[in-house]
Amino acid sequence: MKKGIIMEMDDFFLTLLTPEGEFLRAKRLKQSYSIGEEITFYPVEGKNQLRYLSSIKKVAKMKTVWAAAAAVLLFSGSFIPMYQNNKAYAYMSIDVNPSIELGINKKMQVVELTGYNPEGKKIISHLDDWEKQDVTKVTEEILSEIGKEGYFKTNKHVIISTVPTSQMEKKEEQKLETDIKEITKAVSEQQLAYTVLSGTEKDLETAHEKGVTAGKYKAVNNPVAKEKVENNWKKYKNHSNPTEPEAKAPPGQLKKQMEENVTQEPPAVDNTPQAAVDQSPVEDNIPPGQAKKMDDNQQKQNPGQAKKQAIQQESQGNSQGNSQGNPNPKGKYHYSDNQIKQRNK
After folding, report:
1. pLDDT under 70 in the chain at which residues?
2. For 164-302, where are the alpha helices, taking DSSP H only?
3. Quick count: other Cβ atoms within 10 Å of Cβ 82?
4. Residue 147 in 3-state DSSP?
5. Which among 104, 136, 165, 240 counts the fewest CB atoms within 10 Å?
6. Measuring CA to CA, which residue among 95, 113, 94 is closest to residue 104?
7. How crowded is residue 326: how many other Cβ atoms within 10 Å of its Cβ?
8. What is the per-residue pLDDT across 292-342, written as a single tens digit (0 to 9) for each?
9. Would you state the pLDDT for residue 250?
10. Is 277 exposed, middle or buried (0-12, 13-18, 19+ CB in 10 A)?
11. What's this model's pTM, rounded to 2 decimal places?
């Protein structure tokens, strides 16, 4: 009698694997069995048994091969996505004064973060849990830290560059472009100027050899990129600080413009009644004929007003004479004939 584990079953026989590694055959009794169950049995011997055992061994070997192949496939299936998630398929750089480069996988997650100057390394040291985070989120955190450190006070122009590798597919490049639009929108909301540049893997390699980001390398060494940066900065300054021609005019010209633009005030209108304009006594220096003519014209225009004026002048003349003495050598004031006539009426 032997002990073994049931490997196969049919209507009449059981195939069992013994602890010694043998495959043996036994008659199936009228009881329930299950694959993997360990039982005791009496082996069945014969030529058919030997041929059967030989075929069983071959099948067992094939099963082992297939099991190993399946294990390799399972391992590969889990390893390849993990490898892709940890590998950078595109690079994006942010340059203000801090220079920072981000490595991005196919899911647009940041898997690499490098500072290319002391300022950039300082900003990175302030970031937590950036790995495998979305590139837009990490970029917004970087811009926020740059603002907190005060770098935007001296430079309000952000240069953003992208370099997709040859292994990145078209749909992934489109997704990166969409993310760049979101990033530039966030830059604009902070009242900053920005320029987006694109480079090649060769640009990236050369930039790394020089110890700078691809964006800074192109902005300095590529004439087209350099002009683009300068034009964007000029547009930003003109929009933020519109020029004033008056402030730029030469001092002499500016003074002349100011004098020409001075608004002349209209002459004051005298609404004082005519009778109260001049109530002082008539002096001898006015020619008699002219004084008479003036009195005649005044009397023709308004006889009542002339009479009233004569009475007021007489009253003022008496008061002035009492308080100041007689300015006339004769001690009297001189009145025109018409004023005297008007007084006697």
Report:
1. 45-84, 241-345
2. 170-189, 201-210, 214-221, 223-240, 245-248, 251-260, 288-301
3. 10
4. helix
5. 240
6. 113
7. 12
8. 555 555 555 555 565 566 666 655 555 444 444 444 444 445 555 665 556
9. 54
10. exposed
11. 0.50
**Domain 2-83, CATH number (from 2.40.50, 3.40.50, 1.10.490, 3.30.70):** 2.40.50
pLDDT at position 212: 94
Chain center to CA of 108: 21
Q: How far apart are CA 210 and CA 116, in angstroms?
A: 10
Q: Which residue has the tokens 């990236």?
A: 204
The 3-class SS string of 121-151 reads HHHHHCCCCCCCCEHHHHHHHHHHHHHHCCH
Domain ranges in the chain are 2-83, 88-240, 276-344
- First CA to last CA distance, the chain: 173
Q: What angle do CA 30, 32, 38 make, to 5 degrees?
A: 110
Amino acid, single-letter form, for residue 76: S
E strands, the chain, are: 2-9, 13-17, 23-27, 38-41, 90-95, 99-104, 110-115, 157-164, 193-198
